[in-house]
Design goal:
The complex is a heterodimer.
Chain A: H1 6-16, H2 18-25, E1 36-38, H3 43-51, E2 61-69, H4 73-84, E3 90-94, E4 105-107, E5 112-114, E6 120-121, H5 128-136, E7 140-143, E8 149-151, E9 162-166, E10 169-172, H6 182-200, H7 221-224, H8 231-237, H9 243-257, H10 266-274, E11 286-287, H11 294-301, E12 306-308, E13 311-315, E14 320-325, E15 328-339, H12 343-349, E16 360-370, E17 385-388, E18 396-398, E19 410-418, H13 422-429, H14 434-446, H15 452-455, E20 456-469, H16 479-484, E21 491-493, H17 504-524
Parallel strand pairs in A: 1-20, 2-3, 2-15, 3-12, 9-17, 15-21
Antiparallel strand pairs in A: 4-5, 6-11, 7-8, 9-10, 13-14, 14-15, 16-19, 16-20, 17-18, 18-19
Chain B: H1 13-42, H2 45-67, H3 74-102, H4 106-132, H5 138-191, H6 193-196, H7 199-224, H8 227-232, E1 237-242, E2 247-253, E3 256-261, E4 264-268, H9 272-286, E5 293-298, H10 303-309, E6 316-320, H11 324-332, H12 334-339, E7 349-352, H13 356-362, E8 367-373, H14 380-383, H15 388-396, E9 398-407, H16 415-427, E10 431-439, E11 443-451, H17 471-477, H18 498-508
Parallel strand pairs in B: 5-6, 5-8, 6-7, 8-9
Antiparallel strand pairs in B: 1-2, 2-3, 3-4, 9-11, 10-11
Helix pairs in contact in B: 1-2, 1-3, 1-4, 1-5, 2-4, 3-4, 3-5, 3-7, 4-5, 5-7, 9-10, 16-18
Classes of the chains: A alpha/beta, B alpha/beta.
The structure holds flavin-adenine dinucleotide.
Residues 42, 46, 69-75, 93-96, 101-103, 116-120, 311-312, 340-342, 345, 363, 365, 415, 464, 467-468, 495-496, 502-504, 506-507 of chain A line the site of flavin-adenine dinucleotide.
Chain lengths: 527, 512
C-alpha cells in the first residue's frame, strides 16, 4: 500500500482543514484504505454528449403522447400523476443507468442505503397528493380527524434521531445543551418562540409564511423581504449571537442548502425550521427508509416505462425531442413534454428561456460498508444521524438504525457539502482519486471512531458536482424564477430547481403541476 | 555435589526464618481462598470451611510424611517445591473460578487443589528444618521454625479478611500470593547458593518466569472481573463476560445465584420461581386452548422456558434472544443449566439469536402463547421492544385464541413506566390485564396478560406442579393496590420513546 503522499494530504487539508491533515504526517500508523470506487452518477455521460459531443442527427423517429425528460423525483412524479389521470402513453428518458437522480438508493445484502436524499417530512393535512402516495406505499397507519395522516411507526425516524460529537463525547440532539449558559438558553428559547410564531402564522389568504412546498407560501412583502438579506444578518439583527445557536443555524444551512448561514437567504433559513412544524407546536416527523427516498423512486418506477441511458440533447416547443441512447441518436414526436432536468440542463436544451441562476452546491456522498459497529464512546447512544461538531462534513446516517438492528454489519452514509462556489469545488476535486476521497472520509470519521478503518469492508463515493440549487439571498423571489415555470408550447417544466430549493416536496410539487398542465391542455384541445 | 556438604553450613538462618514466615502466610491464604471460594460458589460455608481446613491439615501431614523420602539436593528440591506452590497456589483462585463455569463436579476440583497445595506446603517445613540442621540446636530450630510458621498463619488470618479480600478481591489475592512465593524462591537461590551449585541458574530463570506469569495474570484478572465490579456487587462475582451485546455477570450469595445484565439484576435463584411462574403460567392458561406452539422473546437464561415446558400441551417452542452468549451461558454454566432443568437443551426448543424487533417482523408463523421477558427499558435500544410498533408486530404473530405474558417493570417503583407499557400494548391492538406479584429480590413486580379480544383473567391454577401459583395467588395477582393503579400516560412510540424518560425519572428516586 502506497504511503500517504503530499497531494493526498493536501486534499485532506482542503476538505477537512489543516489540523486533520497534519495528523496524517505524524504517527507511523500504516493507513489501510479499504477497497472501493467512485461511482458514476451520470455526469460523465452528460458532459460527453451535451457539452463535448457533436449535435446528433436522428435517423429514427417515434411517437409518444407524453415524453418525460429526466427520471428524478420530478419526472417520476409527473408520470405517476398522469397515470392517476388515466394517461399511460408515457415514456421517461433518463440519462443515467438508474432512475432517481439525487434521490436514488442502492442495496447491499445487508441493507438498502441512500445516495442523496434520505428523508421526507411527514405530510400535513393540506398535502393530499403526498398522502395518497404514502398511502399507496402502505406507509399510513391511520388518519387523524383533522386529516393529518399518522405515518407508519416503522418509518418515523426512531429515537435517537440525532447526536453530536463534541470534545470526545456524543451528546443527544443537535443543539448542544451541555454547558449552555443562561444566555445561550435564553437565546435558544427566543429563537424557538420566533420559529413557533412563524409556523403558526397565516396571511389574510390563509397561507402559511413558510410552507412545504414553497409554492403554497404567502407572498406578503414583509415575508418576501426576508429573501433580500442573509440568514446570518437576520440572526444578527435579532441579537442571536449565541455560538451554540449560530452553529445550529449554520449546520442546518449546510445540511439542506450546502451553504453557510451567511450565504443563505434569511427566508430559506427560517423556512428550514418553520416549514417542518405542523399546525402548532411540534415538529413534523421525519419519514425515512433504509435507502432513503430511493424507496419512493422504486415505487414510482414500478409503473412507468423508463428508458435509461438516454441523453436528451434538444427539446423544441412543438414537442420534438432529439436524444442519444445506447443504440445511437433518435427523435421523438410527443404531444406533450415534461422537462424534468436541472435548470442548467434545461437552459441548454431549450435555448431561449429565462436563465437559471447557476449557483449549485456540490456534494460528496460516501457509503461505508461496515462489517461491524465500532465500540461506542461515552455519551449518547448510536443515532440515525451522527454529526461531528467540529467537522466540515455533516457526519453520517446509519442505514440500519430505523430497522432496529443495533449490532452487526451496516452501511453508513457520509455527507459532505461544498459551501463555497460550485465551480471552484468541481475544479478542486476533479483529479481526486478514490484513495484521496477514502482518506478524507476515514480521517473525518476517525475523530469519533478511531478504529473505524478496520471495520470498513468497502467505500463507494459519489460526487454530485451540481448537487443542489442554492437559495442565496434574492434567488427565491426573483421574478425570473417564476417566469421559468411557464410552459413553452408543448414543453412543461418540472424540477426542484424551479423552487430555488432542493427538496423532495419541491420536486414532487413541480411534477404534479406539470402533469396537471398537460391534463388541462388535453382537455382544451381534444385529440 | 551439594548434598556432600553439611546441610546447615553457611546459611543465613534468620533469612530462612523469614522464608518460613512467607511460606506459612501464603499457604494459609491459599487455604482461606479455597474455603471462601467453596462457600461462595457452593454455599454452606460451615461444610466448606471444615472440609477445606481438615483436608489441608491432613495434606500437610502427607507432605511431612513424604519429606523423609527426599534425601538428596535438599536445597534445590525445597526451592522447586516453593515454585510449585507459587504456581498452583497462585493460579488456584482464577482456575477454580473458570472451572466452576465449565466442569460438573466442582467440589472435587476444589478439594484437589487444597490437597495438592497442602501436601506441598507440608513438604516445605521439614525440609527447611533439615536445611537449618547444624546451624543451631535441634530445640532452637524447632522452636523458631514453628514460631515463624504460626506467626505467618496469624498474619494470613488477619490480612485475608481485612486487607486482601476487600482491597484486592479473590483472584488478585491469589495471584499476588503466587508472585510472593515466587519472589521468596528467587531470593532463596541466593540464600542457598552454596548448596545449589549450578542448579541455581535454572531455578532463578524459573522463579523469574513464575513471577512474570503471575504479574501478567494480574493484568488478565482485570478482564476476568473488573475490580469495580467486585466492589459494586454485594456478593462475589463468580462469572462475568462481555459479549458484543452486553455484560453478563453472575454472583453467588448466601441464598443462591444472581444474574445481572449490564448491572441490572435479572433474577435471583432463591426467588426466581415466583417471577417466572407469574410471567409464564397466566398466559399459558389464559389461551383459549392449551398452547401447543409457544414463542419466547428474550429470556435467554432458559428459566421462563422451564415453566413453559412444564405444560404437557407444548409441542414446539422458539426462543429468540439477541445474545448468543446468554443462551450459551444458560446451556453450559452448570448452576444455570441446573436451575433451568436443562430446558435450553430440550428437543422441542429452537433457539434463535436475533433482534426480536426484526425477527417478529420477518416471522410468518402464529403462536398460541407469547412470553416476553426483556430487560427493563432503560435504553433506546431496549425500549424499542416496548413500543406500539413492537406490540402491533407481536399481535400479528399471535393466534386468534392465543395469549401474551410479559414483564413490565415495577408498578410500584416505576408506576408511570408500568402503565405506559400497558397503554402501549393497548395501542398495539391488544386487550390487556395488568397484574403484579411480589418477588423479594425485586420488590413488587408488574406483568401484563394480553389477548386479541376482551377476556377475564384466569382463576384456576394450571394442573402442573408449581411452588407459587395456586388459585388464591392467581386471584390476588390481578388486584392493584391504591399506590399502583393507573396514571395518565403517553403511548411509547419508536420516535418519541417516552418510556425511557418515565423509567429513568421514576427509578432515579429509589436509587440514592
Ligand atoms: C446529497 C444530497 C442530499 C439530499 N438530501 C435530501 C433529503 O434528505 N431530503 C430531501 O427532501 N431532499 C434532499 N435532497 C434534494 C433532493 O434530492 C432533490 O430535491 C430531489 O430529489 C430532486 O429531484 P428532481 O427530479 O427535481 O431532480 P434530479 O434528481 O436532479 O433529477 C433529474 C434527472 O434528470 C436526469 N437528466 C439530466 N439531464 C438529462 C438529459 N439531458 N436527458 C435525460 N435525463 C437527464 C438526471 O440524470 C436526473 O436523474 C438532497 C440532495 C443531495 C444532492
Amino acid at each position: 500500500m502506497a504511503a500517504v503522499g503530499p497531494s493526498r494530504r493536501d486534499f485532506v487539508a482542503l476538505l477537512l482543514g489543516a489540523p486533520v491533515a497534519a495528523a496524517i504526517g505524524c504517527g507511523s500508523k500504516q493507513a489501510r484504505i479499504p477497497p472501493g470506487q467512485i461511482i458514476e452518477t451520470g455526469a460523465r455521460r452528460g458532459h460527453a454528449v451535451l457539452r463535448d459531443g457533436p449535435p446528433p442527427t436522428p435517423t429514427r423517429w417515434r411517437d409518444v403522447e407524453v415524453a418525460i425528460v429526466g427520471g428524478g423525483i420530478a419526472g417520476l412524479t409527473a408520470a405517476w400523476e398522469l397515470r392517476r389521470k388515466g394517461i399511460i402513453d408515457v415514456v421517461i428518458y433518463e440519462l443515467d443507468d438508474v432512475p432517481g437522480g439525487t434521490a436514488r438508493g442502492s442495496a447491499s445484502p445487508v441493507t438498502g442505503y441512500p445516495w442523496g436524499a434520505h428523508y421526507i417530512v411527514a405530510p400535513q393535512h393540506d398535502q393530499p397528493d403526498l398522502i395518497a402516495l404514502l398511502d399507496e406505499l402502505g406507509a399510513i397507519e391511520s388518519m387523524r380527524p383533522d386529516g393529518t395522516p399518522v405515518i407508519d411507526e416503522a418509518l418515523r425516524c426512531r429515537e435517537l434521531e440525532e447526536r453530536v460529537f463534541y470534545r470526545g463525547r456524543w451528546y443527544e440532539g443537535l443543539y448542544l445543551e451541555a454547558g449552555a449558559s443562561v444566555e445561550d438558553r435564553r437565546q435558544r428559547d427566543l429563537f424557538n418562540a420566533e420559529i413557533l410564531r412563524w409556523s403558526t402564522f397565516r396571511d389574510p389568504a390563509g397561507r402559511r409564511a413558510f410552507s412545504l412546498p414553497v409554492s403554497q407560501a404567502s407572498d406578503l412583502p414583509e415575508l418576501t423581504a426576508l429573501d433580500k438579506i442573509s440568514f446570518a444578518s437576520w440572526l444578527d439583527s435579532k441579537g442571536f449571537t449565541s455560538e451554540r445557536l449560530r452553529w445550529l443555524c449554520d449546520y442546518s444551512c449546510r445540511d439542506d442548502y450546502a451553504l453557510d448561514a451567511a450565504g443563505t437567504s434569511a427566508w430559506a433559513g427560517l423556512f428550514y425550521f418553520a416549514s417542518r412544524r405542523g399546525a402548532g407546536a411540534s415538529y413534523q416527523s421525519v419519514v425515512t427508509w433504509p435507502d432513503g427516498n430511493g424507496t419512493l423512486v422504486r415505487h414510482f418506477a414500478k409503473e412507468v416505462p423508463i428508458e435509461p441511458g438516454v441523453v436528451v440533447t434538444r427539446v423544441d416547443p412543438d414537442g420534438t425531442l432529439v436524444a442519444v441512447g445506447p443504440q445511437g441518436a433518435f427523435g421523438v414526436r410527443a404531444k406533450h413534454v415534461v422537462l424534468a432536468v436541472p435548470g442548467f440542463v434545461a437552459d441548454h436544451l431549450v435555448p431561449d428561456r429565462p436563465k437559471t441562476v447557476a449557483d449549485y452546491g456540490a456534494w460528496a456522498v460516501a457509503n461505508l460498508h461496515l462489517r461491524a459497529r465500532p465500540v461506542e464512546r461515552l455519551g449518547a447512544p448510536p443515532a440515525w444521524d451522527s454529526v461531528i461538531r467540529n467537522s466540515k462534513s455533516l457526519g453520517y446516517v446509519s442505514a440500519t438504525h430505523q430497522r432496529g438492528r443495533e449490532h452487526g454489519p451496516t452501511v453508513w452514509t457520509w455527507f459532505y457539502p461544498f459551501t463555497g462556489p460550485g465551480d471552484v469545488a468541481r475544479r478542486e476535486v476533479v483529479d481526486a482519486s478514490y484513495e484521496d476521497w477514502a482518506e478524507v472520509v476515514l480521517r473525518d470519521l476517525e475523530l469519533p471512531h478511531p478504529q473505524i478503518r478496520e471495520l470498513v469492508d468497502k467505500i463507494e463515493i459519489a460526487f454530485w458536482g451540481h448537487g443542489m440549487i442554492r437559495p442565496r439571498p434574492g434567488a427565491l423571489f426573483d421574478p425570473a424564477r417564476l417566469a421559468r415555470l411557464q410552459p413553452r408550447g408543448r414543453i412543461h417544466f418540472a424540477h426542484t430547481d424551479l423552487s430555488g430549493i432542493a427538496l423532495f416536496e419541491e420536486a414532487f410539487d413541480h411534477g404534479l403541476r406539470a402533469a396537471r398542465e398537460i391534463v388541462a391542455a388535453r382537455q382544451a384541445t381534444p385529440a | 555435589m551439594a548434598d556432600d556438604k553439611p546441610a546447615g553450613r553457611g546459611i543465613p538462618a534468620s533469612a530462612l526464618y523469614i522464608n518460613v514466615f512467607v511460606v506459612a502466610t501464603c499457604g494459609l491464604v491459599y487455604e482461606l481462598l479455597a474455603g471462601t471460594l467453596g462457600s461462595y460458589l457452593l454455599g454452606d460455608s460451615v461444610t466448606q470451611f471444615s472440609l477445606v481446613i481438615g483436608l489441608y491439615l491432613s495434606a500437610m501431614g502427607v507432605g511431612a510424611w513424604i519429606s523423609r523420602r527426599i534425601d538428596t539436593n535438599l536445597a534445590a528440591k525445597f526451592l522447586e517445591i516453593e515454585l510449585a506452590v507459587a504456581v498452583i497456589g497462585g493460579l488456584s483462585a482464577p482456575a477454580l473460578f473458570m472451572a466452576f463455569g465449565t466442569v460438573q463436579h466442582f467440589q472435587f476440583v476444589l478439594l484437589g487443589f487444597v490437597f495438592v497445595i497442602g501436601t506441598l506446603v507440608g513438604l516445605e517445613i521439614p525440609l527447611i528444618m533439615r536445611l537449618l540442621e547444624g546451624q543451631a540446636t535441634f530445640k532452637d530450630i524447632i522452636s523458631r521454625v514453628l514460631t515463624f510458621d504460626y506467626i505467618g498463619a496469624l498474619a494470613a488470618a488477619v490480612l485475608f479478611p481485612l486487607v486482601f479480600v476487600p482491597q484486592l478481591g479473590i483472584v488478585r489475592t491469589s495471584l499476588l500470593m503466587g508472585a510472593l512465593n515466587g519472589a521468596v524462591a528467587l531470593w532463596g537461590t541466593w540464600l542457598l547458593a552454596p548448596q545449589l551449585g549450578k542448579a541455581r541458574i535454572g531455578l532463578r530463570i524459573r522463579a523469574v518466569l513464575v513471577i512474570a506469569g503471575m504479574v501478567v495474570a494480574l493484568g488478565f484478572a482485570d478482564r476476568l472481573t473488573t475490580f469495580a465490579e467486585e466492589q459494586m456487587y454485594a456478593d462475589p462475582v463468580v462469572y462475568s463476560e462481555s459479549s458484543p451485546y452486553q455484560r453478563l455477570l453472575v454472583t453467588r450469595g448466601r441464598s443462591g445465584f444472581n444474574l445481572f445484565l449490564n448491572g441490572n439484576l435479572q433474577f435471583a435463584s432463591a426467588d426466581e420461581y415466583r417471577y417466572h411462574e407469574a410471567l409464564v403460567h397466566p398466559a399459558m392458561i389464559a389461551a383459549e386452548t392449551p398452547p401447543r406452539r409457544v414463542l419466547i422473546l428474550g429470556g435467554g437464561d432458559g428459566l421462563a422456558l422451564r415453566e413453559v415446558l412444564a405444560h404437557p400441551s407444548v409441542e414446539a417452542v422458539t426462543l429468540v434472544d439477541l445474545d448468543p452468549a446468554m443462551t450459551q451461558l444458560g446451556k453450559t454454566f452448570p448452576p444455570l443449566a441446573e436451575l433451568s432443568r436443562n430446558s435450553l437443551e430440550d428437543k422441542r426448543v429452537t433457539i434463535v439469536n436475533d433482534d426480536a424487533m426484526v425477527w417478529v417482523d420477518e416471522n410468518r408463523e402464529l403462536w398460541d402463547a407469547i412470553i416476553i421477558d426483556f430487560p427493563d427499558p432503560n435504553t433506546y435500544g431496549l425500549a424499542k421492544l416496548y413500543t406500539r410498533l413492537f406490540y402491533a408486530r407481536v399481535n400479528a404473530r399471535l393466534s386468534p385464541g392465543g395469549a401474551i405474558g410479559l414483564q413490565a417493570t415495577s408498578p410500584l417503583f416505576a408506576r408511570r413506566a408500568y402503565w405506559c407499557i400497558v397503554e402501549t400494548m393497548r395501542a398495539g391492538g391488544l386487550f390487556v390485564r395488568p397484574y403484579q406479584v411480589t418477588v423479594p429480590s425485586f420488590g413488587v413486580w408488574g406483568f401484563a396478560l394480553a389477548r386479541k379480544l376482551p377476556f377475564e383473567p384466569p382463576t384456576r391454577a394450571p394442573d402442573v406442579a408449581l411452588r407459587f401459583i395456586n388459585d388464591a395467588a392467581l386471584a390476588g395477582m390481578f388486584e392493584m393496590a391504591a399506590d399502583m393503579t393507573a396514571l395518565p400516560v403517553e403511548v411509547n412510540h419508536l420516535d418519541n420513546q417516552v418510556l425511557v424518560r418515565y423509567y429513568e425519572r421514576e427509578w432515579k428516586r429509589w436509587q440514592q
